[in-house]
Design a protein that fits this description.
Radius of gyration: 36 Å
CATH architecture of the largest domain: Up-down Bundle
CATH topology of the largest domain: Amino acid/polyamine transporter I
Structural class: alpha/beta
CATH superfamily of the largest domain: Amino acid/polyamine transporter I
Number of strands: 12
Helix content: 55-70%
Shape: elongated
Low-confidence stretches: 727-739
CATH class of the largest domain: Mainly Alpha
Number of helices: 25
Strand content: 5-15%
Largest sheet: 10 strands, mixed
Mean pLDDT: 86
Strand order of the largest sheet: 3-2-1-6-7-12-11-8-9-10
């Protein structure tokens, strides 16, 4: 059986109608008379133009983003997450969903109040249960209709739009057919003690409904075309109507200034001025509020659906009905809206919702500004908005948030920061590119150019490491050790080599890089990963190690894991021998199992005083101790001399070295006895958690070297062989005060 395809909407029904009806809402009927009565015509026009300018800029920013990408379900959340990234998108999207859901409660509550005020018993207080009961009835009604068919809901808005338009025409006719006088221009602030900005904050929510159409992005035939046209048309036509209404109220002689400034007058100003007043105005008010409720109950579940599809919410919430409606998400939203009926203090909560909603304006404008600033080649919108215009819109929205309620402003930012931090901590997988990558590319480019113009001084030395391994999981202890060396200051790249003849791995090279990152993420490790294609392992490893890095971030340390095969061990020593002239420090690590979790660990350094290997070993031990789990580690320096005279000189040399380096260590200089040095090393260090010893260069007897290293690694817990090949002006020598 063929499933019904969800109906797709055009610009007028899908974007313009819900947007303009949310703009021409309750505040237009309740507060315009109060605004004109307090600030006069000139300042009212200024308020309208200022507020509409902010929404127009935000509309332009939203249009720019929507014309650059194929907009899917989720509206504003979709655009922000695809621009700024999944975590910022979630930090905005989750509060936005709650705002839209709570808006259903507010609108249905307002509709109930507007109807019950006309009840015969309205001379007495309306019982709370009657108000709550009617509100719940309206919530169930709008939820049921929207879960059944978005087409039915949107088509029901056409007669509402006609009724609202008729009420505005009735106001125009009613005013021009009665006594007129010169426009009221003086500001009295008789019932607005907070002054101009207080009045502005009261009015501003009247222009915020233009995003109602964007919320239906997934239900549009052509979002790239409909969102800019419908949104900007709604903002412009709404602003035009909002400029006409105050002019009518300012010139009418049917009401005094005091009557209009009365905060309790509300909709009665319209009913007293418009022809057929109550018969046209009250249905228009009810229709406008109901339309806003419909817009919220359509938009909210689709945000929840998008959050679910991106893995920020349970997957079942993205399930669609046969008609293509997010039924489960819609009814869950309806239940949340019903629960909010019993919260109490809805007027206070409404301010917090308004401010949270305004963070959406900030995010949309910032997204458009960032896209312009980073100049991604893929950013080619049909509507270009200068970055400074978008940033001005973002700043203006933040100012309005502060004006509405400073505490709500702080709460909104705090809540979104907490959500953002939580989502970052979850390390979510993002399946699309975003502007944040472009930001890091710009910063990286700037930093690399700056570094390339500078000479790297020994004081600025830090480990830039490349580690060659085949499987991260197989050499996990070695990976953890290597990552620990560069934590917070250095940089680790893990390289896997694949042969040019291995077609299967060659085809999967990008997938292998991703799998390597997943392996690191599962262990809480951070490193760069790459796959290098070579025709010969030995030659390829030499070329990669010798030339790896860019600008001022050239690799200075190469790390190998001691091979498990005899052939591999011989090949590894040959590679190391060839690399000795490249200026790269070389570490060969044998760390067969994770380090002990005990607080006090022990590192032994075997110092021969040749080839400056001791300098590097001491520095590596210092870097390891920067790790919290190794902070209490005891470092022992051992050296074997042939005579008492040599012993005294060596002790003095090592003491001077560690004092200059400001590194704490215990010095043990031994005089050679009947035992071989190798036997002494094993006897003393077999209980050490980690041993550093030198790796001589320019050795050609690889078979003998393999036997020697095998003897050491089989007797010790963990050992790292160190070869200091750093150039003189790059060596991290510890004999300098500027280490």
């Amino acid at each position: 059986m063929k499933k019904n395809r969800p109906h797709k909407f055009g610009t007028f029904l899908g974007v313009y109608t819900p947007s303009i009806l949310t703009i021409l809402g309750l505040i237009m009927y309740l507060r315009f008379g109060w605004i004109v009565g307090n600030v006069g015509l000139i300042k009212t026009i200024a308020i309208v133009l200022m507020a509409s300018s902010i929404t127009f800029i935000t509309g332009l920013s939203a249009s720019a983003i929507s014309t650059n990408i194929k907009v899917g379900v989720g509206g504003e959340y979709f655009m922000i997450s695809r621009s700024l990234g999944l975590e910022p998108g979630g930090a905005i999207g989750i509060p936005l969903y709650l705002c839209r859901t709570l808006s259903v409660t507010f609108y249905c509550y307002g509709l109930s109040e507007a109807i019950l005020i006309l009840w015969p018993e309205s001379s007495t207080a309306i019982p709370a249960y009657a108000l709550q009961g009617l509100t719940i009835t309206f919530i169930v009604l709008v939820t049921a209709l929207s879960s059944k068919s978005a087409k039915l809901v949107l088509k029901s808005q056409i007669p509402i739009l006609i009724i609202v338009g008729t009420s505005i025409i009735a106001l125009i006719i009613g005013v021009v057919t009665q006594d007129l006088h010169a426009p009221i221009t003086e500001a009295t602030y008789q019932t607005a003690p907070g002054g101009f900005w207080y009045v502005f904050a009261v009015f501003f929510p009247a222009v915020t409904g233009f995003t109602a159409g964007i919320g239906l992005s997934g239900d549009l035939k052509d979002p790239q075309k409909s969102i800019p046209k419908g949104t900007l048309s709604a903002v412009i036509s709404g602003a035009a109507i909002y400029l006409i209404i105050p002019l009518l109220l300012a010139i009418t002689g049917a009401l005094t200034l005091e009557q209009m400034a009365d905060p309790n007058a509300g909709v009665t100003i319209w009913t007293r001025l418009a022809i057929f007043g109550p018969w046209l105005v009250y249905p228009a008010v009810w229709g406008a509020v109901l339309s806003s409720a419909f817009g919220s109950i359509l938009g909210g579940p689709r945000i929840l659906q998008a959050l679910s599809m991106d893995g920020l919410m349970p997957k079942f919430l993205s399930k669609l009905s046969k008609s293509g409606q997010p039924t489960i998400a819609t009814w869950i939203s309806g239940m949340i809206a019903i629960a909010a009926v019993f919260l109490g203090g809805l007027n206070t909560i409404a301010q917090y919702v308004s401010v949270l909603f305004l963070t959406l304006y900030v995010a949309i404008n910032v997204s458009a500004a960032v896209e312009q600033l980073i100049k991604e080649p893929s950013y080619r919108p049909k509507i270009n908005v200068p970055w400074y215009i978008s940033l001005f819109g973002a700043f203006s929205a933040m100012v309005v948030m502060w004006l509405i309620n400073p505490f709500a402003f702080a709460f909104a930012l705090g809540l979104e920061v907490i959500i953002f931090a939580y989502l970052m901590n979850k390390k979510l997988e993002q399946q699309w590119g975003d502007a944040s990558t472009g930001i890091w590319m710009h910063l990286s480019r700037y930093a690399l150019l700056r570094l390339s113009a500078k000479k790297i001084h020994p004081r600025n030395w830090r480990p830039i490491i490349i580690l060659f391994i085949h499987e991260i999981k197989e050499y996990l202890p070695l990976v953890k050790f290597t990552e620990m060396l560069g934590q917070n200051s250095g940089l680790l790249t893990i390289s896997r080599l694949i042969m040019l003849t291995d077609k299967e791995e060659l085809d999967r090279r990008n997938e292998i890089v991703f799998e390597m990152q997943q392996d690191l993420k599962s262990e809480g490790l951070q490193a760069l990963t790459e796959v290098n294609v070579v025709s010969d392992f030995k030659l390829g490893m030499n070329l990669i190690a010798a030339s790896h890095g860019i600008a001022g971030i050239k690799t200075n340390t190469v790390v190998f894991g001691w091979s498990q095969t005899h052939k591999g061990k011989l090949q590894e020593l040959q590679i190391i021998n060839d690399l000795a002239t490249s200026g790269k420090n070389i570490l060969v690590g044998y760390i067969p199992k994770p380090f002990s979790k005990k607080a006090k660990k022990r590192i032994d350094i075997w110092w021969r005083g040749q080839d400056r290997n001791g300098d590097l070993m001491l520095l590596l031990s210092y870097l390891i101790r920067l790790n919290r789990k190794w902070s209490k580690t005891e470092v022992n320096i051992y050296s074997i001399t042939h005579s008492e005279e040599e012993k005294i000189l060596m002790e003095h040399h090592i003491k001077y070295s560690i004092n200059e380096a400001r590194i704490e260590a215990n010095i043990h200089v031994l005089t050679k006895d009947k035992n071989e040095p190798l036997e002494t090393l094993i006897n003393i260090s077999k209980k050490a958690d980690l041993v550093f010893t030198g790796l001589a260069r320019r050795s050609t007897n690889f078979e003998a070297r393999v036997r020697l290293i095998d003897t050491i690694v089989t007797e010790l817990k963990a050992v790292v062989f160190v070869q200091n090949n750093g150039m003189k002006n790059e060596t991290p020598t510890i004999f300098r005060n500027n280490l």
